[in-house]
């Protein structure tokens, strides 16, 4: 616990932060990193609490600091950085939040351990941006966004795609659905997710889209849900004109 020249009549106490563990001791030794001694004349040094360390010659428990990936908790002990945060150096500073739209596991020690959330894309440790509408990404991490399958859709930042509503469809990789042929959107419905109703009698719609059904030409009608102009047929007493046989019905002639 003391130091001095061998044979000397006077020995000095080892100060705090130092120790001497076996005679004869001619000098005091610094407490190694990760330990401390808070009293003079120490024969050993105490270990810092779990998940903390200290510099050489620490003389107080307060000289112990949290390791990378840990921060001071309410009790004063070092606790792991929470999900979505990181700390890349030892010290008593708080853990830092990951960049936007990214997260991390408990105890992360580097910003590179921050990875993109599901529905977002970007490099590890960087700001992540939402997957565009019409695509999705199920997993966290550095994976690409994938296009939605036909007859499904997604909004930006989605982790999955949803099926189009009844009587509507979409092409691959779309953020919206459209009414199938033979159906038209209800006027009050959303343009992205329309409610689709059958084309009424006398109207038709040949392709998918969010447009109204077209009317049959004069003196003709069609069944509900018709998909083509040739579904229009002449009223009794009218016959089709030869110029445009499926559109025009001439009047005043007996139907053959």
Give me the secondary-structure topology.
Elements: E1 2-3, E2 12-13, E3 18-19, E4 29-30, E5 35-36, E6 46-47, E7 52-53, E8 65-66, E9 70-72, E10 78-80, E11 85-86, E12 96-97, E13 102-103, E14 115-116, E15 120-121, E16 129-130, E17 135-136, E18 146-147, E19 152-153, E20 162-163, E21 168-169, E22 178-179, E23 183-185, E24 196-198, E25 203-204, E26 214-215, E27 220-221, E28 233-234, E29 239-240, E30 249-250
Antiparallel strand pairs: 1-2, 3-4, 5-6, 7-8, 9-10, 11-12, 13-14, 15-16, 17-18, 19-20, 21-22, 23-24, 25-26, 27-28, 29-30
Descriptive account of the structure:
This protein starts with a strand and ends in a 6-residue tail after the last strand. Helix content is 0%, strand content 25%. It has no helices and 30 strands. With 256 residues, it is mainly beta. Among the domains are: 1-66, Tumor Necrosis Factor Receptor, subunit A, domain 2; 80-163, Tumor Necrosis Factor Receptor, subunit A, domain 2.
């Amino acid at each position: 616990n003391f130091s001095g020249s061998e044979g000397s009549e006077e020995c000095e106490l080892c100060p705090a932060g130092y120790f001497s563990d076996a005679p004869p001791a001619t000098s005091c030794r610094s407490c190694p990193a990760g330990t401390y001694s808070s009293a003079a004349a120490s024969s050993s040094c105490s270990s810092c609490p779990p998940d903390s360390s200290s510099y050489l010659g620490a003389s107080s428990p307060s000289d112990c600091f949290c390791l990378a990936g840990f921060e001071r908790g309410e009790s004063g002990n070092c606790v792991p950085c929470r999900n979505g945060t990181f700390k890349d150096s030892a010290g008593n500073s708080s853990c830092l939040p990951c960049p936007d739209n990214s997260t991390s596991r408990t105890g992360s020690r580097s910003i590179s351990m921050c990875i993109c959330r599901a529905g977002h894309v970007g490099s590890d440790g960087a700001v992540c941006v939402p997957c565009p509408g019409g695509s999705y990404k199920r997993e966290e991490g550095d994976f690409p966004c994938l296009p939605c399958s036909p007859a499904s859709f997604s909004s930006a930042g989605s982790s999955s795609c949803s099926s189009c509503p009844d009587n509507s469809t979409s092409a691959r990789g779309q953020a919206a659905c459209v009414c199938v042929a033979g159906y038209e959107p209800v006027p009050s419905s959303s343009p992205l997710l329309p409610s689709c109703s059958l084309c009424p009698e006398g109207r038709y719609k040949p392709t998918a889209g969010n447009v109204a059904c077209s009317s049959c030409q004069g003196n003709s009608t069609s069944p509900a849900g018709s998909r083509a102009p040739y579904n229009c047929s002449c009223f009794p007493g009218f016959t089709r004109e030869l110029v445009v046989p499926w559109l025009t019905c001439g009047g005043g002639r007996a139907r053959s």
